[in-house]
Amino acid sequence: MAKGKYPSLEEYYNDIARQAVEECVSCGECVENCVIYPFSPLKDKDPTDIMQQMMDFLKDGTYSEDVYLRAFGCAGCGLCSDSCPQGIDPILIHEATKMMLVKQGKQPPEAVNFILPGRKPNLIGVLSSLQTKPSEERWLKKAPANPKQVDNAVFLGCESLAMPHKIYASLDVFEAMGLDFVALAGGDLCCGAPPQMAAGNPKEAEEKARELIANIRAFSPKRVILICPGCYRQFTEFFPRLFDVDFEVKFFTQFLSENQDKIQFTKPLDKTVIMHDACMSQRTKLSESQIKTLEAIPGLKLVGKELGTEKPVCCGGIALMTYPQMGHQLGEVLVEETMKFGADNTTDTCPACMFAFYMYSKKYPLNVKDIAILVNEAMGGKEYEDKLAKCWSCESLDELIELTRENFEANGYPEEMMRQILPHIFPFVASG
């Protein structure tokens, strides 16, 4: 597919569309290998015909509802990426198609606006406000004027803010390793993935990417460490096509596995753990470092390493927002496969997957812990309360409001607004 530098992300996707039209033979292999296809209204349609419609749209703008559903119904997992005999990456075709649909005036499903950076209210901002007060933040939201130079800039991403206990554990690990670092939060700062992958808006995605890079460069770091696989995809797959990345990019588990001599484990965990090999971790080749990090933890027994690798399963990804019925059916398959291993903990590094696990916590006895939390625990670090799990355990909206009132009011959210928003996030709570 497309290689080299591009003047803009939009031109990159234009090139993807041109190459797809020239090279795709509409064999339908990518559709047949799509994990969400069996749960889609398109499931009874000919995969060859679906792809021919996609190519007709990319070629001359011929619109159909099938094209819209195929593009915006994509989970964004990329598990189809190696299925094309022509070497075309279907996930990029879907992203290019979303861009062209939006140009035609076809807006993405309404719920997408709730996950875009800078929007208020915003899903991640709301979830974060339920669990933390501004005084408890151990990160910067923007680079200050003339900041001190640091060796490492840790970008926390957007979605991880919905799980502050994961962030606290990650930062504790870095501090215990003696790392010279600054932590930058997502939210206003963003890698650009949501507008790019979900909303078909590469212009906004590129603007957010350039803003983020400028904030990182303000600290003149030698290295950027990421804790979200989606952010890692942006930094390694897209950013180098747009501008020079003049610092080393490492994912959390890559950095840990390469610096195990700086990690002092003091507490054997004596538990079995199953790792879901998240779709984006597979795409970005992070799986090996995640397994290596877990296997270094004393007392931990890793089971089910084939989950997600030999048996591809997806949490539902973007489809959880765009087409929730499809996304939830796919996500439940993942949870059911996970439960078969009977592990003490389920672990992951993808915040989107982690959030999906929480959604099924009432139905399935899941004990979900990010890899960072397990590492920090084995280093004798503080065990932070999983407040998101407590939110999901609530039986009513009134219970959830009272549990989180102190935090969301400290963040400036009025109760009336929360009563309107929270039932859309936690659909099990009563409207009263």
Describe the structure.
This protein has 432 residues and is an alpha/beta fold. Among the domains are: 9-107, no CATH class; 268-385, Rossmann fold. It has 20 helices and seven strands. It has helices at 9-23, 29-32, 47-60, 65-72, 90-103, 123-131, 164-176, 193-198, 202-217, 229-242, 252-258, 279-283, 287-295, 319-322, 324-339, 351-359, 371-378, 387-392, 397-410, 415-425; strands at residues 152-155, 181-184, 223-226, 248-251, 271-275, 300-303, 345-347. Helix 6 crosses helix 19.
**How far apart, in Å, are the first and last alpha carbons?**
52 Å
Report the top-level CATH class of the domain at 268-385: Alpha Beta
Q: Helix proportion of residues, in percent?
A: 40-55%
Number of E-state strands: 7
CATH topology of the domain at 268-385: Rossmann fold
Order of helices and strands: HHHHHHEHEHHEHEHEHHEHHEHHHHH
Helix segment tally? 20
Q: What can be said about the biggest beta sheet?
A: 4 strands, parallel
Assign an overall shape.
Answer: globular
Estimated structural class: alpha/beta
Poorly predicted parts: none
CATH architecture of the domain at 268-385: 3-Layer(aba) Sandwich
Mean pLDDT: 92
User: Approximately how much beta-strand content do the residues carry?
Assistant: 5-15%
SSE blueprint:
Elements: H1 9-23, H2 29-32, H3 47-60, H4 65-72, H5 90-103, H6 123-131, E1 152-155, H7 164-176, E2 181-184, H8 193-198, H9 202-217, E3 223-226, H10 229-242, E4 248-251, H11 252-258, E5 271-275, H12 279-283, H13 287-295, E6 300-303, H14 319-322, H15 324-339, E7 345-347, H16 351-359, H17 371-378, H18 387-392, H19 397-410, H20 415-425
Parallel strand pairs: 1-2, 1-3, 3-4, 5-6, 5-7
Helix pairs in contact: 1-3, 1-5, 4-5, 6-19, 7-17, 11-13, 19-20
